[in-house]
Amino acid sequence: MQIPGHIDPVTTGTVPLRGGNRIDLVGLSRDAIGGVLVEAGLDAKAAKLRAKQIWHWMYHRGVTDFEAMTDIAKAMRPWLTDRFIIGRPTVREAQVSSDGTRKWLLAAADGQEYEMVFIPDADRGTLCVSSQVGCTLNCRFCHTGTMRLVRNLGAGEIVGQVMLARDELGEWPKGTMAGFGPDSDDEDYEEGGHYTADGRILTNIVMMGMGEPLYNFDEVKGALKIVMDGDGLALSRRRITLSTSGVVPMMARAGEEIGVNLAVSLHAVSKEIRDEIVPLNRKYGIDELLKACADYPGAGNSRRITFEYVMLKDKNDSDDDARELVRLIREYGLHAKVNLIPFNPWPGAIYECSSPERVKAFSNLIFKAGISAPIRTPRGRDIMAACGQLKSAATKPTRAELDRIAEEKQAALG
Ligand code: SAH
Ligand code: SF4
Prior knowledge:
11 helices, alpha/beta
């Protein structure tokens, strides 16, 4: 089904409001918050000031209750509470892996479910964020690909994952903000100087959860702009990576308008194999995809593109495949690194993971050519939280149903 304004088949739905008639402010830009305050009756100047204050409390301090916004006059707080909420996704289930990886099954206001994963490491903490409920695409090795796309997540639901993760990790900054006295209605407050990026638990974000982020461009962009805003979550764009299966027409815009690191799910070096395992390849082939990588704004030594490559036994893991990968990276003059992902199994998957020796040999061949090709350690496999294992539907479809869903998706791709 073609939706006007979208470049490819994408279905989307409206998101019912959490909190009844009240508007959820999470996910709105600062100007949009000002706009809803004007609609609610404030004059433009007051709305601008309040929007700035509310923004700071929401995104810098993680406050969800207007009563806690001490620089907003006491009398005004119930007025805000009557009209607005600062929502969070509902946690349906929270699991912790033996390796410390955490996975949350979340529910939106309309009951739709999606997952997010937190991966702690010695030097960083990475949150893997979903962009859609399900996925329109059907990469054959991916569990999410066996779900139908239910709908796009809204910007608020995307940024809401980051906010909830900070709640759960207990890492909103405490203490007072510089210039914010209790009940001060002072417009010229200073930005809070008590909080820096140092010592953070959640340091990195990867758009690698459920869904194809470039099929939900506007909402992903809106959410990441909020995540990067200096007077809020303030995560640097260098610490954010967006992964795409290769939606070529949206890649340049992603670089120009969002400007985060790009990861590309390449997974194969020949048309035959990529057509089979990443069916989007039938629409945007390897040649087009690598050209778009070469043209990715800002691509260069300082900002290398990451190619993700899932290791599938006897499918894409030969020495010749590794050599061809090196040749392609050179041919297109790409400053790239390759992330080798051992295939993570899921019920009903038709592939097996390459042997550790094969993965190592593949990696060595690429390293020898001067291209970095680390092997990603699978994380959270025991709770189905590893790459490609996410899926929110509780039911287990049969093989025939899986094939039918794959056929439907292929037909929709055209
Ligand atoms: N839809 C986007 C982002 C989400 S997937 C994309 O496809 O790029 C994050 C990464 O995990 C992608 O590279 C994806 O191809 C890979 N992946 C999917 N299923 C996997 C599996 N079963 N084992 C290992 N990696 C998998
Ligand atoms: Fe969708 Fe990415 Fe999974 Fe492919 S790998 S089906 S694009 S989520």
